[in-house]
Design goal:
alpha+beta, globular, 13 helices, binds iron/sulfur cluster, single chain, 4-stranded antiparallel beta sheet, 327 residues
Length: 327
C-alpha cells in the first residue's frame, strides 16, 4: 500500500552542513564483511564528519525554551555527579548472588528493567580501546507515553532528555554502589556515545528485539524507553536474549514506515557490517531528526509502545506460534 504522507525534504540551511560522505556508508550498510562500528553521531563533534550537524541540532534546540534548558541542565547535573572511590575492602559473593543483588539495587535506583551481557569487541567503535571490564549491566528507563505521542515536539524532547538524565543517574549510583563493595564499575548514560554501541548488548542482555525502526522493542516498555549501562568486573551471570516474536511481527507491520516523514525506514532487512538486520536510512532520518526536535515519531507510533499493549501482543504472538501451520 502506498504511503499517505508526502516525503519530507531537508532545508538548504541544514544541507550546507552535510558532509560529502554518506552516513549509511559510515554505518556499513550493504557491507558483507563483519567489522566494528564506526563513530558517527553523539561523539565529540570535531571527531566525526557529521559533527557540524550535531552542533547545528544542539544550537537549534537549545533555543529559548526554558523546559529544554532546564532538562539539559538536569542531565548535565546527573553527568557531573561524582564517581565514588573504590572501597579497599572487597565484598565477595557468588556470581548468581551478585546478579540478583545488582538487579535489585538497579531497580531501587530507578531502572525499569535490568539485564546483563558480556562485553564484546564487536560492540566497540573502531579507534576505541575495548574496555577492560568483562560485564555490561544494561538499564532500561521508560518514557512518558503521553509526552512521546506529541513527537516531534519540545515536550517529547524534554521527556527524552529527562529519561537520559534518569538513566545516567541510575547508572552512576549503581556504579558507585558497586565501587562501595570494592568492585570496579563505570557508568554510561546517553545520548553522547561512549566507546561502544548499546543496542547489541541490550539485545544480548534480554532487553528486547530489534524492530524495523532500528530501535529495540521491549516486552513491556515497547519502544518507549532509553538505555544506560554500567561496566564492571564484579562476577555476574549473563542473561539470554528475549525473543518473543517482535522481529517476525515487524515483517508484516508498516506502522513506523508510514509514520516516518522522510521515509527513512526500510521495508526489508539490510546487510549491515555482515549482519542481515532492520536498518534505518541515516541520511534520511538524521535531517528530519535535526530539524524536528529529535523526532522519535517511530518510537511512539510502534504499537508495542502503547501502555499495556505489548504484553497482550506478545500473548497473541505466542498463541499464534502454537497453531498448526498449513501444509
Ligand atoms: S526518528 Fe523520525 S525520521 Fe528517524 S526513523 Fe524514526 S520517524 Fe523516521
Ligand atoms: S511499528 Fe510495526 S514494523 Fe515498526 S517497529 Fe513497531 S512493530 Fe515493527
Amino acid at each position: 500500500m502506498p504511503r499517505k504522507l508526502p516525503v519530507w525534504t531537508p532545508s538548504a540551511d541544514q544541507l550546507q552542513h552535510w558532509p560529502t560522505i554518506s552516513g549509511n556508508a559510515i554505518n556499513g550498510v550493504g557491507e558483507a564483511a563483519v567489522r566494528r562500528p564506526s563513530p558517527i553521531y553523539w561523539h565529540p563533534p570535531d571527531s566525526t564528519p557529521h559533527g557540524p550537524l550535531q552542533r547545528w541540532f544542539y544550537a537549534r534546540t537549545a533555543s529559548n525554551d526554558p523546559d529544554i534548558v532546564a532538562a539539559r541542565a538536569d542531565r548535565q547535573a546527573a553527568i557531573d555527579e561524582p564517581l565514588a572511590p573504590l572501597a579497599e575492602t572487597v565484598v565477595d559473593k557468588p556470581a548468581a548472588a551478585w546478579s540478583t543483588e545488582v538487579k535489585r539495587v538497579a531497580r531501587e535506583l530507578g531502572a525499569d528493567d535490568v539485564g546483563i551481557a558480556v562485553m564484546r569487541a564487536d560492540y566497540v567503535f573502531e579507534g576505541h580501546a575495548v574496555p577492560t571490564q568483562r560485564w555490561m549491566i544494561v538499564l532500561a528507563v521508560g518514557q512518558d507515553y503521553e509526552a512521546m505521542r506529541t513527537a516531534p515536539s519540545s515536550r517529547a524532547l524534554v521527556e527524552v532528555t529527562r529519561q537520559y538524565a534518569r538513566g545516567t543517574r541510575c547508572a552512576k549510583r549503581l556504579a558507585n554502589w558497586l565501587r562501595g563493595q570494592g568492585h570496579d564499575a563505570f557508568p554510561y548514560g546517553g545520548p553522547m556515545a561512549g566507546s561502544f554501541l548499546l543496542i547489541p548488548p541490550a539485545i544480548a542482555a534480554g532487553m528486547g528485539e530489534l524492530g524495523k525502526h532500528g530501535s529495540l522493542i521491549h516486552r513491556s516498555l515497547g519502544s518507549n524507553f532509553r538505555l544506560a549501562c554500567v561496566l564492571t568486573d564484579v562476577p555476574l551471570v549473563e542473561d539470554a536474549p528475549d525473543r518473543f516474536g517482535a522481529d517476525d511481527f515487524c515483517t508484516n507491520c508498516r506502522v513506523c514506515m508510514d509514520a516516518c516523514p522522510p521515509d527513512a525506514i526500510a521495508p526489508v532487512k539490510q546487510l549491515v557490517r555482515g549482519v542481515l538486520r532492520w536498518s534505518v536510512d541515516f541520511d534520511k532520518c538524521l535531517p528530519y531528526f535535526n530539524e524536528n526536535m529529535g523526532c522519535a515519531i517511530c518510537l511512539a507510533a510502534c504499537p508495542f509502545s502503547r501502555p499495556g499493549v505489548a504484553p497482550k501482543f506478545i500473548a497473541k504472538l505466542a498463541e499464534r506460534a502454537t497453531r498448526p501451520r498449513e501444509p
